[in-house]
Design a protein that fits this description.
The complex is a heterodimer of chains A (about 170) and B (about 450). Helices cover about 45% and strands about 15% of the residues of chain A. With about 170 residues, chain A is α+β, with helices and mostly antiparallel strands. Chain A has a single domain (about 50-165), classed as 2-Layer Sandwich (60s Ribosomal Protein L30, Chain: A). In chain A, helix 1 (about 1-20) packs across helix 2 (about 50-60). The radius of gyration of chain A is 17 Å and the shape is globular. Chain A starts with a helix and ends with a strand. Residues about 1-45 of chain A have low confidence and may be disordered. With about 450 residues, chain B is mainly beta. Chain B has two domains: about 10-35 and about 50-180, Rossmann fold; about 190-455, TolB, C-terminal domain (Neuraminidase, 6 Propeller). Chain B contains three helices and 32 strands. Chain B has helices at about 75-90, 115-120, 165-180, and strands at about 10, 55, 65-70, 70, 95, 125-130, 135-145, 150-160, 190-195, 205-210, 215-220, 225-230, 235-240, 250-255, 260, 270-275, 280-290, 290-300, 300-305, 315-320, 325-330, 335-340, 350, 355-365, 370-375, 380-385, 390-395, 400-405, 410-415, 425-430, 435-440, 445-455. In chain B, the strands form eight sheets. In chain B, strands 1-8-7-6-2-5 form a six-stranded mixed sheet. Chain B has a four-stranded antiparallel sheet with strand order 11-10-9-32, with no helix packed on it. A four-stranded antiparallel sheet of chain B has the order 12-13-14-15, with no helix packed on it. Chain B starts with 7 loop residues before the first strand and ends with a strand. The chains are: A alpha+beta (about 170), B mainly beta (about 450). Chains A and B meet through helix 1, helix 4 and strand 3 of A and strand 16 of B.
Chain lengths: ~170, ~450
């Protein structure tokens, strides 16, 4: 768990770095050896192609949200997952983990099962978009890891989620 | 300290042996005149209508002051009386008097009843402490009816010094059981999840303590999330869930050795473990491709046997005390409701029909009730009959969850989640009347309490 969180933080740091570097791309010299991923046409932004940073820059979001006590993939979630599926199709060897989460207004054990449902519903959708399910592992955190800390509808809506984590 | 916590509970006939040399007069013969059937000293445990019973628990004198690894025997005598006082007061059924006086050793079996009657005490608990030549301690415990001047019960406990508090709990259990007619529960432990840190990243550690919060000990270091610990009936084994290695699964923890092992070795999420009353099985939930069902597996591991096959979430299983039935929650009807079935999964019947959702059912060790979390606005702790019906809600706060029964089936412990960004949670207890609600003090925050069986 500690390791996972560390890598999430690292990803955030990379994103922040990317945001800074975007403001001054012209003055930078080409990165030495940075041409490996030029085939994607997206190199030069500091992310190795196929990396987590590349994924998170390329997709609409790494997170989809769910309605109360639901694991339906709605239209907005589908459009997000479609951009994820496109990226995953481009890097067919990159494994991912889907985290399923629930809000605090459910009992602990039920929420573990609900988080598992959400992760698996997401996995099934991506599989339906042609992603090999063997690349996808799932983990449910139930209500253990909220991103929004309030006890209100807005926080709960943000916490009912599935997050795609690229394991590169 | 760990394995050989054998409490030698001897029903010593103290007047004939241990005390004969020192005590002057034997205990006065039970006065039969005042003891007609209807006049017996009893405590009403059902209604909570009558006032708590006045009781006096003076410091326990010692035969001769001696130093022990647990402290001096005279000091232990004072603390033992405090343990008995605290246990009885916390039950909500007793009102210990503060009008105490010193009791001479010879007075233990010859109480000054007139004084205790004037101190608003209907019952009197006296005792003594003695350091034995073999390093053990003997604690004598006597219960008297003040008005009839009769001895109601006596017991002696021989304990290693490290277990001295248990002698106090055993004494309180004797008093409680004699005066209420209920089973004892004070000499028991609670395993729970100690929590600290920010709400978005709580650090959770397995912890164990005596029922009254003493002898607190952390069992895991907090590097992995741990959830929902429960005792096995052998008192030495805890089943719980851990995220160690980012693979959430059920583990079996041995308190004596501090070692643990994975219970079910497969890639699926396994959770909600509960030991069977005979300790041979673990009832648990497993999520396979998004569908959660109940299974059981031998306590030693092996292949799980599937018990439910509904397309939905079946979890939170709990055995009846004879092991023949299981109560669980399922959302097969659209939302969480309670069901019972035979231990082999047959004869599944819904037992909850009220509004809102019902979750985390636990079968009382007495067999007569199911406790649960009721979700309808607030999360509340409730009880109902195993056949359904006779519902009674015991608490009413924003989020109370996860009840666990005391060994005598008269008290529930649960956790109360705070509202807002702190993530704070605390352990609480409530009795069946719903009146006696108390917070259980823990060093850090607490959740997921599992109340263990009465210790032998």
């Amino acid at each position: 768990m500690a390791r996972l969180t560390t890598t999430i933080l690292l990803g955030t740091a990379l994103l922040a770095t990317a945001a800074c570097s975007k403001k001054r791309p012209e003055v930078l010299p080409p990165a030495p050896g940075g041409e490996v991923g030029s085939g994607t046409g997206q190199a030069g932004d500091g992310f190795a192609p196929g990396s987590r940073g590349d994924f998170e820059r390329s997709v609409t979001s790494n997170t989809i949200n769910f309605a109360l006590d639901s694991y339906d993939i709605d239209a907005r979630a589908r459009s997000i997952l479609d951009t994820q599926a496109q990226w995953l199709a481009r890097y067919p060897n990159v494994p991912i983990t889907l985290e399923g989460h629930a809000d605090e207004r459910g009992t602990r054990e039920y929420n573990l099962a609900l988080g598992d449902r959400r992760a698996n519903a997401t996995k099934n959708y991506l599989a339906g978009r042609g992603i090999n399910p063997a690349r996808i592992s799932t983990i449910s955190y139930g209500k253990e890891r909220p991103v929004a800390l309030g006890s209100d509808e807005s926080s709960w809506a943000q916490n009912r989620r599935a997050v795609t984590i690229v394991l590169n | 300290m760990l394995l050989n916590h054998r409490l030698l509970a001897l029903a010593l006939l103290l007047s004939g042996t241990a005390l004969s040399a020192q005590t002057a007069p034997p205990a006065p013969a039970a006065a039969p005149a005042a003891q007609e059937q209807g006049d017996e000293l009893v405590v009403d445990v059902e209604g909570g209508i009558s006032a708590p019973l006045g009781i006096a628990i003076p410091a326990m004198p010692t035969v001769a002051v001696a130093s022990t690894p647990a402290g001096r025997t005279d000091e232990l005598g004072r603390q033992l009386a405090q343990i008995v006082t605290s246990d009885l007061r916390n039950s909500g059924l007793f009102k210990p008097t503060s009008q105490l006086k010193d009791v001479a050793f010879g007075e233990v079996t010859a109480p000054t009843f007139d004084y205790w009657a004037s101190a608003s005490a209907s019952a009197l608990v006296q005792g003594f402490v003695r350091a034995n030549g073999d390093g053990t301690l003997t604690v004598g415990c006597y219960l008297y009816d003040v008005f009839s001047r009769a001895e109601l019960a006596r017991q002696g406990f021989v304990v290693p010094p490290s277990d001295w508090r248990r002698a106090g709990h055993k004494c309180a259990d004797m008093v409680y059981a004699k005066l209420t007619g209920e089973g004892p529960y004070f000499d028991s432990r609670v395993v729970y999840v100690s929590e600290t840190g920010p709400k978005g990243k709580r650090i959770k550690r397995l912890a164990i303590m005596d029922q009254d919060g003493a002898n607190h000990r952390f069992l895991t270091n907090g590097q992995s999330i741990v959830l929902t610990p429960r005792f096995a009936p052998n008192q030495q084994t805890i089943v719980y869930m851990s995220y160690v290695g980012d693979k959430p699964a059920i583990y079996v923890y041995d308190i004596g050795s501090g070692k643990q092992r994975l219970l079910v070795n497969n890639p699926n999420l396994t959770f909600a473990p509960r030991a069977s009353p005979d300790g041979k099985w673990v009832l648990f939930s497993m999520a396979v491709a998004g569908n959660t069902d109940l299974y059981r597996v031998s306590m030693s591991g092996g292949s799980p046997q599937r018990l439910t096959e509904s397309p939905g979430i079946d979890t939170g299983g709990s055995y009846s005390p004879d092991g023949s039935r299981i109560v669980f929650e399922s959302d097969r009807s659209g939302g969480q409701q309670l069901y019972t079935m035979n231990a082999d999964g047959s004869n599944q019947q819904r037992i909850s029909f009220g509004g809102g959702r019902y979750a985390t059912p636990v079968w009382s060790p007495r067999g007569d009730l199911i406790a649960y979390t009721r979700i309808s606005g607030n999360f509340r702790i409730g009880i109902m009959s195993p056949a359904g019906g006779n519902e009674k809600l015991l608490t009413d706060e924003w989020q109370d969850e996860g009840p666990s029964w005391s060994p005598n089936g008269r008290v529930l412990t649960f956790y109360r989640q705070g509202r807002g960004g702190s993530g704070k949670a605390d352990l609480w207890s409530v009795d069946l009347t719903g009146v006696n609600e108390r917070r259980i003090a823990t060093p850090l925050d607490g959740s997921d309490p599992g109340w263990g069986p009465l210790r032998p």
